[in-house]
Design a protein that fits this description.
Helix content: 25-40%
InterPro entries: 4Fe4S_Fe-S-bd, 4Fe4S_Fe_S_CS
Order of helices and strands: EHEEEEHEEEHHEEEHEHHHHEEEEHHH
Protein name: 4Fe-4S ferredoxin
Number of domains: 2
Keywords: Iron, Iron-sulfur, Metal-binding
Number of strands: 16
GO molecular function: iron-sulfur cluster binding; metal ion binding
Organism: Streptomyces dysideae
Strand order of the largest sheet: 3-2-8-9-10-11-1-12
Bound molecules: iron/sulfur cluster
Shape: globular
């Protein structure tokens, strides 16, 4: 079988065999599972740990697990984590230094063992988010070597969407519920079976090792039509205008004051966002003063210190920081990296404690521009 092989079908035993084969290869298999009242991403020892029969109810600032009668494993939207928690972890030690008995200082670079990841159930929006982080963290002049190490061996199994969540809007960001190339295998769950498409030679080799059967044109056509239909059922949408023009024309919008009055500048939206990549470094010294460590940790443009320059922060107000975040996501990200910085996963909407909804804010900015007679489409 090759990367262009015809789609196959796995049943639940086949899915179990797939996970077992990945574990047997020595891979750390990570996928969705129910824990602490949410569907989180965690290491799986078997496909039985997938959230069969669980879905989620979502809204701005609201997330609830709900039971599903159909026993589906992948009929839930993005949870509080994304794959960046594994590829670009929240904290990572870079090096440590010790004072020697002679009074010198010795430095030790941190060289942790890099897990060989297999990600199971990567949503199409998250596949795009990984491609964005690849461009930022592994594709430019300033490579994050830890990210590069973890990413280079990762095996990706996408799970296409047939049931978008109430806060999903990937179609508005130029994506959709079908998986773009970049996966090794792509699953589409159909009534307890999993249509499998092969995206790489490694994916083809793995599929050969597990029990499967040819998909047949009917199942394939139903899967394609279920995924196509999902495009029309997004829970949210962005206004159909040129967002770069809108953001550029909205620098002095009154709406920024409105959102600033609600925004707690907590940074949750940047923590859960699968594309936000900013980090800072900090030194941690022990009480003796003889041992110090340098850690890299996620940073957020909502932190006051983030824009600290020569005696003060450049963006001291919540208005300035929210505007920076949204303008970077939807406009200046294009200038830096050639794409939008938003894949429409809806996480920032769900996990904002103030229930601030990026789609509502953009619609309000658009309405303000329209009211001023400067439409942007
Ligand atoms: S928009 Fe929401 S999640 Fe983001 S910083 Fe403001 S209050 Fe926090
Ligand atoms: S900005 Fe919000 S909707 Fe867009 S990718 Fe980030 S978390 Fe997802």
């Amino acid at each position: 079988m090759t990367a262009t092989a015809a789609p196959a079908v796995l049943d639940r035993d086949g899915l179990n065999a797939l996970v077992a084969a990945l574990v047997a290869q020595g891979r750390t298999v990570v996928g969705p599972t129910v824990r602490d009242g949410a569907i989180v991403l965690a290491e799986l020892s078997s496909a039985d740990a997938l959230p069969f029969g669980w879905g989620v109810e979502l809204d701005a600032g609201r997330y609830r697990l709900v039971r599903r009668e159909d026993g589906a494993a992948f009929a839930h939207s993005a949870g509080p984590q994304s794959w960046k928690n594994f590829l670009h972890p929240a904290r990572e030690r870079l090096w440590s230094a010790d004072r020697t008995p002679e009074g010198d200082v010795s430095f030790t670079a941190d060289e942790p063992e890099t897990p060989s990841y297999a990600f199971l159930g990567v949503r199409p929006c998250d596949l795009r988010a990984i491609a964005i982080q690849d461009r930022v963290l592994a594709g430019g002049r300033y490579e994050d070597t830890g990210y590069g190490r973890r990413r280079s061996g990762a095996f990706l199994i996408a799970a296409e969407c047939t049931e978008p969540g109430a806060t999903c809007f990937c179609v508005s960001t130029g994506g959709g519920p079908a998986a773009d190339p970049g996966y090794d295998l792509a699953l589409t769950e159909m009534d307890g079976r999993f249509l499998v498409r092969v995206g790489s030679e490694e994916g083809a080799e793995l599929l050969e090792r597990v029990p499967h059967r040819p998909a047949g044109p009917d199942l394939e056509a139903s899967a394609r039509s279920a995924v196509d239909a999902a495009r029309d059922h997004m829970g949210r949408s962005l206004p159909p205008v040129d967002l770069r023009t809108l953001m550029g024309a909205s620098l002095d919008a009154e709406r920024w004051d409105d959102v600033a009055a609600r925004c707690l500048t907590c940074g949750n939206c940047t923590m859960v966002c699968p594309t936000c990549f900013c980090t800072t470094t900090e030194e941690v010294t022990d009480l003796t003063g003889d041992h110090t460590e340098r850690w890299q940790r996620w940073d957020s443009c909502f932190d006051l210190d983030f824009s600290y320059l020569h005696g003060g922060p450049v963006r001291a107000s919540a208005r300035g920081r929210y505007r920076q975040w949204l303008t970077h996501k939807l406009s200046t990200w294009h200038d830096q990296f050639g794409t939008s910085g938003c894949v429409g996963c809806g996480r920032c909407v769900v996990w904002c404690p103030a229930g601030i909804d990026i789609t509502e804010e953009v619609a309000a900015l658009d309405a303000e521009r329209t009211a001023l007679g400067t439409e942007t489409d």
